Amino acid sequence: MSKKLVGLFIALCLFGGLQTQALAEASAGGKCNSTGKIAVVGTARLVCAKVGKAKTWIALDSTSFKSPTITSVIIAPSASTSFYLTGQIINVLVTFDSGVIVTGSPQIFLDSDTIGKLTYAGGSGTQVLLFSYTTVTGDVDNVGFGLKANSLVLNGGTINSMNGTPATLTHLGIAKSATRKLGPTAPAVTTTVTTVATTATTVATTATTVATTTTTTTTVASSAAPKITSIAFKEPGAKWIVGQNVQVKVTFDLPVVITGSPYIGLLSDAINKVTYLEGSGGVSIIFSYTVLTGDIDNTGVGIAADAFVLNGGTIKSSSGVNAVLTHAAIARSSLRKIAAS
């Protein structure tokens, strides 16, 4: 055999060995180097493709291109097992029948009178995705929240299979439950808070009695219904960003006592209300909302006329007369946008 033929034979053997090693290391989901390269491992045909920022071996059989579907959605229980406190995190776990890749900030929505969406928090590349929401002051749910069916939305992001096939996002809802109530304090403390409020009302009544003894004019004033004299945003200058507070200041002509969690409805593409924060006993009341990841409003926030909602609470004078909650609207403004940063 000539030297040329011997050299060619050795080269072919070496090439075959390298190919065998490369194919042996190839597996669906594993790393690869050259996009478009085809490998055959057993009965599986693989192609090297870019998924996100990584180059990954993708199987070319038909099952690998099917749309991932949701097999379960659960609300993780709180540490107390029956209620969530302000500042605690509500977690929802969404499980798919195969691994998914996530981009952007998909959201899923709770079934609750006071809280809404949870935002994607992690899990890309696995079958289980985590969605989270941190409760803020004013979040109250005395019934117990659940989860709305088919409420998982992409919000401009994507949820795809490892091969890029969009996932099917339909899923079952979760019924509201008394084991998922939400408030600022544990139920055992609520009675104590109510007692303190009652005592304050008694003191106010005593003061009114003294005023009645002094003059008839004071008696008439003490029975008057407080009225709103002004309502205004604490303007951000141009926009609010994640972590900042959207606040509204409401001024009454008489001091008011507030119980529960009244709120004011907002005109916005991203948020729907600001909830009572502080000021009970005075004439200036603050309502607030903390901006979360995913809250975007490029038009600007406003308030519709007469947008107060008592939400099971009360707004009264110190002598117990219900306040008149009518007020003018505040138009949406480009100086009150909400942005990610």
Name the helicity range. Answer: 10-25%
Class per helix and strand makeup: alpha+beta
How are the strands of the largest sheet arranged?
4-6-10-9-8-11
> What distance separates the N and C termini?
74 Å
Mean pLDDT: 81
Main sheet summary: 6 strands, antiparallel
* Number of separate strands: 23
Low-confidence stretches: 4-24, 189-221
Order of helices and strands: HEEEEEEEEEEEEEHHEEEEEEEEEE
Q: How would you sum up the global shape? A: elongated
Radius of gyration, in angstroms, nearest whole number: 30 Å
Strand fraction = 25-35%
| Total helical elements | 3
Task: Give a brief rundown of this model.
This protein has three helices and 23 strands.
What are the defining features of this structure?
single chain, 341 residues, alpha+beta, 6-stranded antiparallel sheet, 23 strands, 17% helix, elongated
Give an account of the 3D structure.
By secondary structure, the protein is α+β, with helices and mostly antiparallel strands. Helices cover 17% and strands 33% of the residues. Strands 4-6-10-9-8-11 form a 6-stranded antiparallel beta sheet, with no helix packed on it. The radius of gyration is 30 Å and the shape is elongated.
Q: Topology, pairings included?
A:
Layout: H1 3-25, E1 38-41, E2 44-51, E3 54-59, E4 70-75, E5 83-85, E6 89-96, E7 100-103, E8 107-111, E9 117-122, E10 128-134, E11 146-147, E12 158-161, E13 181-183, H2 187-214, H3 216-222, E14 228-233, E15 239-241, E16 245-252, E17 256-259, E18 263-265, E19 273-278, E20 284-290, E21 308-309, E22 314-317, E23 337-339
Parallel strand pairs: 5-13, 15-23
Antiparallel strand pairs: 1-2, 2-3, 4-6, 6-10, 7-12, 8-9, 8-11, 9-10, 14-16, 16-20, 17-22, 18-19, 18-21, 19-20
